[in-house]
Each structure stands twice: as C-alpha cells, then as structure tokens.
Design a protein that fits this description.
By secondary structure, the protein is α/β, with parallel strands linked by helices. Helix content is 41%, strand content 12%. The chain has helices spanning 2-35, 100-116, 129-141, 184-189, 218-223, 229-235, 240-250, 275-281, 304-315, 343-348, 392-421, 427-438, 444-447, 453-463, 468-492, and strands spanning 71-77, 118-123, 149-153, 191-192, 195-196, 212-217, 266-270, 287-289, 295-297, 321-323, 336-342, 356-359, 381-384. A five-stranded mixed beta sheet has the order 10-7-11-6-12. Strand 1, helix 2 (100-116) and strand 2 form a beta-alpha-beta unit.
Length: 493
C-alpha cells in the first residue's frame, strides 16, 4: 500500500508539471499573437485586396528621429474652386475642434513637430488650382526657397514638369516609396521616363475621398422589384448594360407634364467629372506608360473609342439619366435610383434618413473579368518638391514620417469613422467599400492632364457631345506634342 501511495504521489506531481507546461506554452502563444500586431500596424484601406481580406503581421517601420532645430516645413496645397469637400484641411489644423478627422490630423501635426523639433506651415489653396501652380513656378524662377513641398492637383501638375520646376524625388534621403503609406499604384502611374517627380501618399485623405462608387436607393430597388446590386456585384453581373436597364425601369414622368424634369423620378444621376471614372471602370485608359515609362495615348486603342461611345450614349439618354449640371435630380430626396459619385459624396449623405447602399462602378460587359475601381485623377493631390529645396535629408525624413503617421492615425479615422461607421448603412456596403479601396487603380492620363486633354473630355460630358472619334482626331497630335515637350525636359535632366 505504501508503494502504491508513493507511486500515486509521483504520478500526481508529473501530471501537475504537464498541466503547467501546457499552460506556459499556451500563454507564450498568446503573447506571440499580440507581439505580431505592433502599434505601427494600422490597416490601410488602400491595401485591402477584398472585402474579406485578413490582417497580416507587419514589422514596425524604422523611421529615424532627429532634431531638426526648429526647421519650418512649408507646404502649399492647391485649392479646387472653393469646393469645400475637396479642400485640404488635414495637413495643418490649428486646434482641436471636436471633429474626429480634424483632431486626428491635429494630433499628427503636434506629434511630428514635437518628435522632430520642427514647425509645419501650410499655404492654403487658392480658388483656382492653377494659381497655386503659378506660386510654385514664381518661387522657383526667382530662386527662392519658399516651399519645402507642394500638393498639386492632377489637372495642372504637368505645368510643373516643363521647365525643371520640380525635384526628382529619388534624390531625397530617408524615404522609401515602396512603404505602405505611399500609394504605390498611383505613384507608379506617375513614374514617367523612369523618373519620379510626383507621388501619392497618406499625407492627406483628399485623394481617397475621390474614389469612385455608385450609391443606390434601397427602397426603390425593393419597391420596383429589381435585382440587388450587391448580389449582381458578387455574381459578376454588375455591368453597364444592367446599370442602364435598371435605371430605365425606374424613370418616369411623375408630375405628368409630358417631359422629364427635376421633379420626376430618374434612373441615374451623374456629374460630368464622374464620367471619367465610368470610362476607367469600363477598362478605358487615356494614357499608358510603355516599358521605358514614356506616356503613350491609348484612348483610341482597341475598342476604347467604341466603349466611350457606348458609355456616352448610355449616360446622355435623358429619358432616364440626368446630368446634374443640366437637370438636378436629387438623390438625397429619393428621386433617383443610382448616383455616380465619389467617397466624399457618401460622407455628404450621412445626415439623411433614407436607406442607400454602395457598390463599385459597373464593368463594361460580362467579358470584362474584374471591376476596376478608380480615383478621379484630375482632382487628386500629387505630392512634389520644388527644385529650390536643397535639404534632401530633412525633407525626405519629414515626408516619410508625416505620411506614415497619416496611415497610422488620420486615414483610419476618415475611413472608419466618417465613411463606414457614419455613412454606410449596412454590412454589405462596408464590404463593398473595403473592396473599392482595396482595389483602386490609376490612369496616368487622368492624373496628368496633358494639354488639357482629359479635362476637355469631361466638358464633352457636360455638353453631351458623343463624337469622341472626332475629338480624338482633332486633339491627339496636340496632346502628343505636349507629352514630347515634357519628356524632352525630363530626359535632358
């Protein structure tokens, strides 16, 4: 009995040791799980590849910290005709205002200023973005170091590429444009002639606010017995033809006056500037870069002209589709089924009570394999550095740290608090937003408005001119000449 009791005691001791060992292993695993999610890992919506994308571990970035001895970083940001939703307010806020995006941006500003012993100063945009381009030109021509960095709109950016107004950004130190806080797809679309004079990053939320999407009235979908746009997206059947077909089923002369006016029910509402987004989502690119980074006009390549004609014909049919500048059919008053918009339009709808959903822009047809979410390039902010700035070390370090802090704190607030939590009305819309932001692509032609080529196509949409072949025939040579002038300057260094 004594031997049996002793053996039992030994067995119990071994069992306890085994339990303690398992607990230690489990605890260690739990600890490792947490350590794989450092503070630096903030999921950037621009890096989500699908609505169901999973978070992945990422090492904390190594960004040097150094005393900049009170240096002022002066940033000029281009305006947009006083259109408030596109003004740049998240670079240099002056104080806390109790508004999440402003306060996150203010926190970033204070954090950078204290960490690097510097001062951030913003020159706010003018009424016309071209006026801000002229300010940069004037300062460089005079040899004055007025601005350390600039954020210019795509509509006027090429003006700065003609006479060495800008620094080739490869000369900057302490910066890596492959890091997640720089929007690589956009930056690569700007890599002309193998040189980088402009990039896109998380300096500001304005660019992602120009991501294109479609808002739809959920009550009208149900009331007219239409297919769910969510289901159409998921099955791959969300096409331009389906979009137009559903719009035609809804549109009707509500007041019975025999004509379609802003008092009637419309299938589609759009603004001229959103038309380029629909063209891009149909697979049309104005310009593509060849293997040497030389811009090649591709608007008339393959089936592009036919596609543009089809898109224009569908949109300009005023039996169901209204151009907002011609016939203001209010989506927020539940008189329109579909609204072609940008992310900033969704933010503007958050105060209304009706139910709306969000989906990406449609594919051109069923033969198109993927949806092609994109950004309105003419209004996008392109980050650049005037050639009069000789402080490569501090400028590169500042831009790297500022963009990283934007990814870490400012962009998530815009994305989650303003766009998803307050605006999207259901989980499916949130999934669609994830998909849109995770799959954005960029057209060099809409980012670089050579000879005003892209802008004039928007003007065609305003006047409802469908003769795209004639337009290209008349203007292509002038655009090619503008491209050559810029490329000659770049190649000459």
């Amino acid at each position: 009995m004594k031997k049996f009791g002793f053996a039992l005691l030994i067995l119990l001791i071994l069992l306890n040791l085994l339990i303690l060992s398992c607990a230690a292993i489990l605890f260690a695993c739990a600890g490792n799980s947490n350590s794989n999610k450092p503070e630096a890992e903030i999921q950037n919506p621009a890096d989500v590849n699908s609505p169901a994308a999973e978070e992945t571990a990422a090492p904390a970035p190594v960004i040097p910290v150094q005393d900049m001895n009170g240096k002022e970083f002066r940033i000029i940001t281009a305006g947009w005709w006083d259109y408030e939703p596109m003004e740049v307010h998240d670079i240099c806020p002056e104080e806390y205002m109790g508004e999440p995006l402003n306060d996150a941006a203010y926190d970033r500003k204070i954090r950078i200023e204290e960490t690097y012993n510097c001062k951030i100063v913003q020159t706010a945009g003018s009424y016309e973005p071209s006026d801000d381009v002229k300010k940069v030109q004037k300062s460089v021509q005079a040899g004055d170091h007025v601005y350390d960095a600039a954020m210019m709109r795509g509509i006027d950016f090429t003006t700065l590429l003609t006479k060495n107004y800008l620094l080739e950004l490869g000369e900057l130190q302490n910066i890596d444009f492959d890091n997640s806080w720089w929007r690589k797809k956009c930056s690569d679309a700007l890599l002309i002639g193998g040189k980088r004079y402009g990039v896109s990053g998380n300096i500001s939320s304005v660019e992602i606010s120009l991501a294109a999407l479609v808002c739809f009235n959920k009550n009208m979908i149900k009331g007219y017995g239409l297919d769910s746009p969510y289901d159409l997206v998921k099955t791959g059947d969300w096409t331009l033809g389906k979009f137009a077909e559903m719009g035609k089923q809804v549109a009707h002369d509500l007041d019975g006056d025999g004509k379609m006016t802003e008092n009637d029910i419309w299938g589609v509402n759009y603004d001229r500037d959103r038309v380029w987004n629909l063209l891009n989502s149909s697979g049309v690119k104005l310009i593509e870069l060849d293997s040497n980074g030389y811009p090649q006009i591709t608007i008339d390549a393959g089936e592009n002209l036919y596609k543009i004609q089809t898109v224009f014909t569908a949109l300009f049919d005023e039996s169901y589709s209204s151009n907002n500048r011609r016939i203001g059919s209010a989506f927020n008053q539940e008189r329109t089924l579909f609204r072609l918009g940008w992310a900033l339009d969704v933010v503007g709808l958050r105060e209304y009570d009706f139910d709306f959903g969000i989906v990406p822009l449609p594919k051109y047809d069923l033969n198109q394999k993927e949806y092609m979410p994109n950004v309105y390039g003419l209004g996008a902010n392109i980050i650049c550095v005037p050639s009069t700035n000789a402080d490569m070390e501090n400028t590169g370090l500042f831009l790297e740290a500022f963009s990283y802090e934007g990814e870490k704190s400012v962009i998530p607030v815009y994305y989650e608090n303003l766009l998803k939590t307050k605006s999207a009305r259901d989980n499916e819309s949130e999934d669609m937003i994830d998909y849109i932001f995770g799959n954005l692509y960029y057209d060099t032609g809409t980012l670089l408005n050579f000879d005003g080529f892209t802008q004039r196509i928007c003007e065609m949409a305003e006047t409802q001119d469908t003769n795209i072949a004639s337009f290209v025939d008349k203007n292509k040579a002038k655009c090619e000449k503008a491209i050559k002038k810029i490329m000659d300057t770049i190649e000459a260094g």
